[in-house]
Amino acid sequence: MTLEELEPKAREMIGRYEQPRAAALPLLWLVQDNLGHISSEAEFWIGKQLAMSVAHVRELVSFYTMFRMKPAGRRELRVCTSLPCQLRGARDVLARIETHFKIRPGETTPDGELTLSEVECLCACELAPMAQLDEHFIGPLDGDTLGLLLRGSRIPDPQPFLSTGGPVISSRFRYPDGAWFETYLADGGYQSAGKALLHMTPDQIIEQVSAANLRGLGGAGFPAGRKWSFVPKSSPKPRYLVVNADEGEPGTFKDRYILERDPHALLEGMLIAARAIGSHKAYVYIRGEYIRPARRFARAVEEAYANGWLGKNIQGSSFDLDVVIHRGAGAYICGEETALLTSLEGGKGFPRLKPPFPAISGLFQSPTIVNNVETLACLPFILRHGPERFAALGTLRQGGTRLFSVGGHVSRPGLYEAPAGVSLRELIYNHAQGIRNGQRLKAVIPGGISAKVLTAEEIDVAMDFDSLTAAGTMAGSAGVIVMDESTCMLEALLAASRFFAHESCGQCSPCREGTGWIHRIVRRIWAGKGKPQDLDHLLAIAGDMEGKTICVFADAAAWPVQSYITKFRSEFEEHVHTGRCPASREAVACRP
Amino acid sequence: MSDLVKFTLDGRELQAAPGTLVIDAAKKAGIEIPAFCYYEGLSLQAACRMCLVEVKGAPKLLAACTLPVAENMVIETESPTVVDARKFTLEFLLTNHPLDCPVCDKGGECELQDMVFRYGAGESRFTEIKHHVDEKQWSPVVFFDAPRCILCYRCVRICDEGMGVKALGVTNRGAYSEITPNMGSHLECDECGACIDICPVGALTSGIYRYQTRPWEMDHVGTICTHCGDGCKTTLGVRNNEIIRGNNRDRSGINGEFLCIKGRYAFDFINHPDRLQSPLMRVNGKLEEVSWSKALVAVAQKFSEIKAASGKIGIIGSNRTSNEENFYLRKFAQAIGTPHLDHRRTGDIATLLDALSGRADALATAEDLYTAQSVLVVGADLAQQHPFLAFQMRANWRHHQSRTFVVTQGPVREDAFATRNLRAEPGQEIDAVTTLADDLKSSGDLIVVFGDSIRGDSLRKLVSFIASLGVPAKYICLLDYSNSRGAFDMGLIPGDGGMSAPEMLAASDLDALWVVGANPLADAALASQNAFVVVQDLFLTETAQRADIVLPAASAYEKTGTVTNTCGQVQRLSKALNVMGAKPDLDIFHLIARGMRLDLGPAQPDKIFSEIRATVKGYDIPLPVIATGGAALTNPVNGNVPHAAASAALVRGSRDTLFTSGTLGRYSPILSKVMEAPGGLYRK
Ligand SMILES: Cc1cc2nc3c(=O)[nH]c(=O)nc-3n(C[C@H](O)[C@H](O)[C@H](O)COP(=O)(O)O)c2cc1C
Ligand code: SF4
Ligand code: SF4
Ligand code: SF4
Ligand code: SF4
Ligand code: FES
């Protein structure tokens, strides 16, 4: 394959977008998928195709971690060492892999067979400790599976636990290979979309969704109907629906299952939302590591086009909708909605200032609604069964159920659909079957790594947005990370702080410098070289980062620091003063 | 106006137009809100978080650089919370900063240093080991010291938005973010140095100024760049009779902060080792150094002899000497009765003025280029040949969405934002232009900028076509050097029966050729074997090598006077330093005249300028404007020049690029280094 041979395909890709530059990530993927890496010659070539300066192409290659400037081995193994995997032994797994293949992360075996890397959360914490081998997610990498991996044998598809009983979303998860068009239709699929397109006005849809108390399930919990109502009714500009499938919050793994097992539910939800806001073009931004989910979703899109549920004049309603799938390339921050839009436009994932809010000026400076996958997947249920039924499933101000991703030290990590107001205790002890090996609970992060930690005494709390906010933490993405008494909170903070240092976009000085600074102090304490003033400094730095930046990432980076240190201060102090870990009782620090 | 917004800033009741940013509103009220990433004229970044202010009722501090004032808003810019936040932001910025101020070029004018002084943050809690990265040389001009960088993105934005070059990027992310040049390890770009001057700290430094001196040890002299015809003001930093740097940070002059590589750095020709220090005289066929008096006597004698014998004396003047010098030279020619006077004409201003037939307001300035609703460029590569005018057009498009139309032979940088761009061979541009009629009619007021291929009849056609559109239109006739326009206005053109420069060179019976600051023999031969040749120049050019007498001249940076830029604006030269050996051309003229016992009136620049004001059409400009460093627009009218004398066929542009500048360019070490540097961005 040569660059010239890629040109027709490149032109086709550019044609999908309103502005050539938006095809930057697709073109980078095109080059890397076909030529193995992105050479500097390829950077110039892409610059030429998109009328972009090579300096700006190179920015992208270096910003997104999945792009590589040098060839990699025949196979690529990406081992996750983020907190949820770390809790289940990821460090040992990585160490064994390193010893076996005699390479370190970032290196390739001398025979060019395998490239190893260490990555942040792949959002498959139900498989922890897990890794990605080429496009496959594999795990848990304990005993047998790790053995297969080291021997190079085929690894069977993992079978983690997940809800299949609904009521709102998970019922079609029972099809391991996905509910494809026929199945979906047989299940009553596309009835709600038909209703929305043929029998409802946009205002009626918005009213119903508002009455259902559907909150944004990407993390912020903003009422979906209200957000849609901000889209200007009369604007000469096109309106866009953008689906946030950049699932990245450590501890969360729900959107992947919707994309893989129930893609038509998302598509139907998109049709309903598009109709409500008057959008005729939708982009689905899927995180780069989700290769199989993206492929499966693409298949559903094809089916929908073939069956007249996408494209022009859908089902004779004279409503048009086109869907473009856009792949990310390894940057957590692109889950933040404005960063996602910048990235979609062909930039680095830099969050933008708000206002203007995307609903007024978003993608290509046009009114844009960004919704999470799960939020949209709830819509068919609401229109089919009525907003009252949906609302009744939840709490007073948050309707429906949620997909709770439960990982860490529970007996049965998995994805559980439960009412929005389920208690944390119930989730841990009933759904996930309690703490593994009969250990005692020490701490829980209820809403993805950005949420403040709760102690074992604080788990009698409902999991809806408002209750968790009242409890001083947040529901976030509903990624529940459970830690038992063997957990070293310093080590947990080390993982969290490394994540934030790795993922800060680097735009704002407090965030860029603060995340790096925090991580270095925590790492030093962990190495047994803590100083008496360190803990106060950490708290002060976190305080100085909070509320001062373009997006809330910096706040999210501050919260773990504040909550872990405040709630487990004596443990941290012991680390600082003795250089030893009280939790793991190891001689020097948690790890030498 | 009733629709002003009322707000309170630090307890003062103020008003501003809706949409005004708090940081600008504060500045207007005399309150300086600290800012690193905010920069007037560049897009908003809001990244440094230095400008946070407290707004009553807002849950968080807000960035003043992106916050528009709102009715009844109550803003505190120095409350304890705000001051604390700034201190912390500074502390964050200093975490990876080497704090090597004592050896840093920026020491003394560093914005970070100033802020730390203002807000403290001296006692850092940061005790981790700092990343050390070695300083890198990216190009002959640009050096980068990564640890000093505070990632304000000013450099990236000025290069993207201001220069349109887009040579810089920020690679990686988070704490590993780093400014990176377009070629990975080196930079290929305009080498304008804008990024260096805009850098608030000492992260970007110039190969010219690095480690030379400290800012407070220099005197600053504002004068006019001697290279292209755009007439940028450059402020020269002078120490011990040596120019150390050029910049225009005070935004005085028509160009604001803009300077291209030539205005910012290419003053270095003045110290070239080949610079002539002493007059030369041909003795036994070879040029030998002689004293000034000997050389001047020889010239005066020989000229007097030829004059007495009614011989033919040809005079070729300069595109870079001052108006006063050119005016005086023309008087000289008249006094010795020779009509054979000329200069190299780089654009057909003569035909333009004639075709405009008396319209007094039809000439545009660079400022107009920034405000016009549309601009048509015909036959010129502005980014290469008129960097400042190109900059103005880009800024107009960026800030006011002006419409740009381009008709050129090859691709040009303006294509990137042109509403329409057409390619046409030289001579065929007008046909292409006429196809734009509908676009031009609907684009509002228009400025037409044209190069040397548009001359004579095609220029007349262009003017009548534009007139037929019925939109207000103004013109810029591109002229290539710092005083090409002045040379024409001062009448360095043949008198009745006089020969043009090419004719002089071709005349086998020419008795004397006097060349001032020009190098006609670079690409032509002198037919007259016996002509007595006198050359005034800075260097031993091809023409000087043929001379019988060479008189070393001072450069524009070494004298006073005025020059007229390509748009017809008069500006004043200031003398930055004294020269050894060489003399200003005016002094040389005067000494020769004295030797010939000619009375040409006073020879002081300001006295000559009074004469110019009184006698040259359109030059009756207000003195205070130029006295205070401003640019005064001349107002030429039809009939200024006997048109026949200004034959359009003689018009020939210099073909200079961004990195060349006639003879001076060849002797500029920095331009030579750039030309020799790797890469072929502009040097194919
Ligand atoms: C740092 C950060 C990361 C985020 N990551 C995600 C994400 O991975 N997926 C997601 O749907 N929303 C994410 N969000 C929330 C989005 O900004 C946005 O609120 C959401 O996509 C809106 O959709 P919803 O209203 O349907 O939840 C993130 C927000 C922040 C600040
Ligand atoms: S807070 Fe951090 S992640 Fe968000 S924009 Fe600023 S630097 Fe980027
Ligand atoms: S010198 Fe000028 S062109 Fe080169 S990188 Fe700096 S700003 Fe851009
Ligand atoms: S090099 Fe200078 S101008 Fe550029 S980002 Fe760094 S500090 Fe700012
Ligand atoms: S644009 Fe022309 S006048 Fe301005 S600095 Fe460059 S060479 Fe000098
Ligand atoms: S000046 Fe406002 S954030 Fe930098």
Overall description:
The complex is a heterodimer of chains A (592) and B (684). With 592 residues, chain A is an alpha/beta fold. Chain A is globular and about 70 Å long. In chain A, the strands form 3 sheets. A 6-stranded mixed sheet of chain A has the order 5-11-10-14-12-13. The longest helix of chain A has 18 residues, at 509-526. Chain A is built from 25 helices and 14 strands. Among the domains of chain B are: 5-93, Ubiquitin-like (UB roll) (Roll); 280-345 and 484-662, Rossmann fold; 349-477, 3-Layer(aba) Sandwich (Dimethylsulfoxide Reductase, domain 2). In chain B, the strands form 7 sheets. Chain B has a 7-stranded mixed sheet. A 5-stranded mixed sheet of chain B has the order 2-1-5-3-4, covered by helices on one side. The mean pLDDT of chain B is 93. Classes of the chains: A alpha/beta (592), B alpha/beta (684). The interface between A and B is large, with 42 and 47 residues. One iron/sulfur cluster (SF4) is lined by residues 142, 158-159, 163, 165, 167-168, 187, 189-195 of chain B.
Can you lay out the helices and strands and say which pair or pack?
The complex is a heterodimer of chains A (592) and B (684).
Chain A: H1 3-15, H2 24-35, H3 40-50, H4 54-63, E1 75-80, H5 83-87, H6 90-101, E2 114-119, E3 131-133, E4 136-138, H7 143-151, E5 161-162, H8 181-186, H9 191-198, H10 202-211, H11 224-229, E6 240-245, H12 255-261, H13 263-277, E7 281-286, H14 291-306, E8 322-327, H15 337-344, E9 368-372, H16 373-377, H17 379-385, H18 387-393, E10 401-408, E11 414-419, H19 424-431, E12 441-445, E13 454-455, H20 465-470, E14 479-484, H21 489-503, H22 509-526, H23 534-545, H24 553-567, H25 569-578
Parallel strand pairs in A: 1-2, 5-11, 6-7, 6-9, 7-8, 10-14
Antiparallel strand pairs in A: 1-3, 3-4, 10-11, 12-13, 12-14
Helix pairs in contact in A: 1-2, 1-3, 2-3, 3-4, 9-13, 9-17, 10-13, 12-13, 12-14, 17-18, 21-22, 21-24, 22-23, 22-24, 23-24, 24-25
Chain B: E1 5-9, E2 12-16, H1 22-28, E3 52-55, E4 62-63, E5 73-76, H2 80-94, H3 111-119, E6 136-137, E7 142-144, H4 154-163, E8 168-171, E9 178-181, H5 194-198, E10 204-206, E11 219-224, E12 233-239, E13 242-247, H6 261-264, E14 280-283, E15 286-289, H7 292-308, E16 313-316, H8 323-335, E17 341-342, H9 349-356, H10 366-371, E18 374-378, H11 382-385, H12 387-400, E19 403-408, E20 420-423, H13 429-434, H14 437-441, E21 446-450, H15 456-469, E22 473-477, H16 484-489, H17 501-506, E23 512-516, E24 532-537, H18 542-545, E25 549-552, E26 561-564, E27 569-573, H19 585-595, H20 605-615, H21 623-627, E28 632-633, H22 662-666, H23 669-676
Parallel strand pairs in B: 1-5, 16-17, 16-23, 18-19, 18-21, 19-20, 21-22, 23-24, 24-25
Antiparallel strand pairs in B: 1-2, 3-4, 3-5, 6-7, 7-10, 8-9, 11-12, 12-13, 14-15, 14-25, 26-27, 27-28
Helix pairs in contact in B: 2-3, 7-19, 8-19, 8-20, 9-15
The complex binds flavin mononucleotide (FMN), iron/sulfur cluster (4 copies) and FE2/S2 (inorganic) cluster.
